[in-house]
Specification:
homodimer; 240 residues; 11 helices; 0% strand; flat; DNA-binding
Chain lengths: 240, 240
DNA sequence: ATTATATTGGAACGACGTTCCATTTATGTC
DNA sequence: GACATAAATGGAACGTCGTTCCAATATAAT
């Protein structure tokens, strides 16, 4: 009766771990899924691979998990929850937002699949966690109530955009069994050979691509938005 | 010999459309793919459905197209190319960036699958087009050479982030055969019922979610970044 | 006409997500 | 301890997908 999305352990049994020690559980499945995704990439999570790793059948997994989408969201949420929990400190709201953004960047660097998973969890738990963390800091920044959602939304979408691209780059490099820097290098080479008439800008930044620091650029973008938020507040004060 | 990515029509035949009128071609395949994606959504693009619509076999399609990823990228590029071509005008660089962003928003609203397709085209043609358009305007804004990539990257990632989320929302709603606004309404309801202790912010903005305008929020984010860029330039002028 | 090449249509393969169900294991009752 | 009920398991089977393969056809070249 405790099927899938139902409440787990509604009537909790008195003592110890019931059932045999090696029994299946939602947590064990999620844990195995994360291990699989980390080691084999986005495409590595299959019910067959999962069955083998857990020494069971596909049907047994479906008893604890709704479907693959549910499983991926749960795995994603597990990473996001940890990440959010580890970034609560910070001197100023701006510093906290930077720390939080950096935490997300590192999390996605360590688990690239989270970047693409986040794209498919619209409005669900992982996203809510991020929105909540960002929102509390935006409030602390003194942004007016009416503008809070737009501001949080800007930060969120920017972070999700970088997350998605980083995930895609890593995944792209993995399928060609080269590493990320080699991929960026190859991309820079292609860009530098574009037609100067049609693509003057792309051609000119190709060199910067080769030596740039993903993380620094990411934080520069966060600072750009934070600076824009400061402008919002300045406008408000000017009017009073 | 003109297989897949090879040069087409290297030795062009003298007169008229060679081969029979209804012959297959890369363009006809891409056109049909777009129609399929628009009408059936992300999952609607299948080599079987494509075969049926084009009255041919799967093997014939593979003669003109490398694989599904190549096909999706080409379809995506077709939309992006049109979008970029239709947004070249504008009074100021800032206005042009806004127009461009708006064009992207509308394009993804009309073809939601483009949002997720863009995530999987890292460094390829569609992305280069967007980078080029943004880059030229950022240059015109007077941003220093060293900072141009970071600024373009921020705008690009923000746009891609919104694109991906909008695509996900539309797709999510489609699979449940409800429309987008009903989905956002349902999401707002869930958020408003969250634990006030744990999710005070998410709970408080739930109401705004119900009545907000996606496009307005998107443009507000663009303005936030543009405002941050203005700040960059101000700093630079202060130093000289 | 005959050969060579470009293109086509569809059968077949292996992998996937998911469903189904017979079987096993635990829990509650007398 | 024996029995009934429910929870949980493992694996076979189904339908769909991307992709490959290849015999058949259409076009071009000689």
């Amino acid at each position: 009766m405790s099927r899938c999305g139902m409440i787990k352990n509604a009537r909790n049994t008195p003592r110890g771990p019931q059932r045999r020690e090696e029994s299946l559980s939602r947590d064990r499945i999620i844990e195995a899924s994360i291990a699989l995704l980390d080691s084999k990439g986005e495409g590595g999570l299959t019910f067959r691979a999962l069955s083998e790793r857990l020494a069971t059948g596909a049907g047994a997994i479906y008893w604890h998990v709704e479907n693959k989408s549910d499983l991926l969201t749960a795995a994603c949420d597990s990473i996001i929850a940890r990440t959010m929990a580890s970034c609560v400190v910070g001197a100023t709201p701006e510093a906290t937002i930077r720390t939080l953004a950096l935490g997300m960047f590192d999390a996605i660097d360590a688990h690239p699949w989270v970047g693409s998973a986040l794209t498919h969890t619209a409005g669900q738990l992982p996203m809510v966690r991020i929105v909540e963390c960002l929102g509390q800091q935006v409030r602390a920044l003194g942004v007016a109530d009416k503008e809070q959602w737009a501001v949080v939304s800007a930060l969120l979408h920017y972070i999700l955009g970088v997350a998605g691209q980083n995930a895609a780059n890593t995944q792209f490099a993995r399928t060609r069994s080269i590493d990320r820097s080699n991929f960026l290098d190859a991309m820079a080479t292609v860009w530098s050979q574009l037609d100067p008439k049609e693509y003057p800008f792309a051609r000119s930044v190709a060199g910067q691509l080769r030596v740039h620091d993903d993380c620094a650029d990411f934080l520069a973008g966060i600072d750009l938005i934070l600076s824009g938020i400061r402008g919002l507040r300045a406008d408000r004060i000017d009017l009073t």
